[in-house]
Amino acid sequence: MTLGLTLDTSASQQISSATLEIIEPNDPAPGVEGPHRLIAGDNLAALDALREQAVAVHLVYLDPPFYTQRVHHRTKRKRNQRTGRLERSQAPAFDDRWPSLASYLAELHKRISRLRELLTPDGCAIIHVDPTTSHYVKVMCDQVFGPECFASEIVWRYRRWPAKTKNFQRVHDVLLRYQRDPKQTPRFEQLYEPLAPSTRATWGDTKQLADFDSDGRRIRSTRTSEPSPGTPLGDVWEIGVIAPVAKERTGYPTQKPEALVKRVVQACSHPGDLVLDPYLGSGTTMVVAAAEKRRAIGIDCSSEAIEVTCKRLQDRGVPFQHERVVPEPA
Amino acid sequence: MTLGLTLDTSASQQISSATLEIIEPNDPAPGVEGPHRLIAGDNLAALDALREQAVAVHLVYLDPPFYTQRVHHRTKRKRNQRTGRLERSQAPAFDDRWPSLASYLAELHKRISRLRELLTPDGCAIIHVDPTTSHYVKVMCDQVFGPECFASEIVWRYRRWPAKTKNFQRVHDVLLRYQRDPKQTPRFEQLYEPLAPSTRATWGDTKQLADFDSDGRRIRSTRTSEPSPGTPLGDVWEIGVIAPVAKERTGYPTQKPEALVKRVVQACSHPGDLVLDPYLGSGTTMVVAAAEKRRAIGIDCSSEAIEVTCKRLQDRGVPFQHERVVPEPA
DNA sequence: GCAGTTAATGAATCGCATG
DNA sequence: CCATGCGATTCATTAACTG
What we know:
Number of helices of chain A: 7
Distance between the termini of chain A: 41 Å
Low-confidence stretches of chain A: none
Number of domains of chain A: 2
Oligomer: homodimer
Radius of gyration of chain A: 22 Å
């Protein structure tokens, strides 16, 4: 028995020779290495072009389609001038239908193989999936990175309306984190979360100190007066989904909360670093990277995605360079 | 590329012909179908023997070794009579070292294939793993049950002493739930968890009701006066690990909290049902099943496990039948 | 201004109607 | 009869409004 399925990855190695054409240039701020780049077009070709440009990224966050076998739509709202009523229109944003799980994984494999090569040795990639595909994606990623490069399975726990089902409500997504080189000290900024209520009740808000007797045996810990920053952040994150009426909501489907991406960016990169998102969607990664003083490259083939992101970056006053993938004739 | 690894499962089909010998019989309580059964010996042979007996179980919970590549020890505490000091001794409990991940999965595959056949059509199996092996185990289980039988990835989130690492703290385990037959209405008892604070603040403790106007358009929801039981239980469970000094602690390694197993038992079985645990360990499943008025079968090959469980059941006044696997000469 | 109240609505799943 | 689609369900959350 082979585990599950066989992927044809022979095509994974063929490098395309597309180039990136600058539609609207933008000069980086003084002292910064380059501008934010928004790239419209196929991410596979774009990644090859970035390799040609010897781009080195510190963090990749990718939120690929989840193998839902559905087309996802963008919702636009408009107030009807005559009636004064809010009206909604729908436009297809991306197509998540696949012939098979194997074909889905094969396409993802190509992208992840290339992403890996763009990473700095201390960089990492974070792949956002859901618990119906996460296991297959993890096994596939172990092949790309090596199992020893697997760093974390992060669980994003959210709250939402209940579904009518004789099963436990599905209320989590999964983020797989891989390091490029496990021998390097990873680029990692320690974040903290609040102490558990039981800990605060017993120990207050100051650090505990483990104590040992003369035989090296553990004895009762002592309270210190040094304030505790909280407990080091775990791999289960409770962050709300974007509320239906929140200002943050763009109408782009599958939009992820800024709070989630912000945590990824803060923990896995430093200010000035380069962050890449090859499935940009509504542009959350670029918005967050800019706010956190990182430099961002975002890629998406959906014109709806590019439109939403452009608008969002402009609204925030984030300057960026707009580019386009140009396939090279063979 | 094949995904990860190839398992030799040809041996999985060979059914052994072991029998179960009753060491100490026990009559079931009146009106109950049979006694709790504690079976010492290899679980593979025991499962074959249970099949011979046409045993049908409603729920399987299994907590197999996690592929830690270590031997795990039981800690015994004793007060030294002369010095009055607490002294700890260690005895090997189980060996979790494997030649390869493939061999680990192959052994688990054999057990899970047999477990599946013992399940009632509306029954389910819950496999407790950790996030370093869960993905491979899920892919393997998809082969045994069929991917459409996968019901839930349950995340057990616990709190513990932080480790010093340049990574997110690992604070979760994974429980994979599979149904025997997805066309059957699953045996599932709806449990609830408290409403989110924001919901209570806005809506109070009563149910909301969606409203629609005459055109079928959504209008504002109304408050009802019917009290809400809470929100249907999700697939992320926050349950504390057993504290190092808790009464519940037996000294057996990898012991799981009763609260965790209780939730599994309450949600996935009814009173009077038969619950099976082929990696019994400290006996938590039998203790919880008995307390929840379910009937239990526990199997373990470790004499330390059997000893701990016997003591624990006796301390709780739970009567049980003690049996032993007797390999049949070929 | 601030706090408390009210309004608006996403989207998972089941069950039933429809083709 | 099987596939498809739509209606019903109902927490969770923030924005807007009100006193």
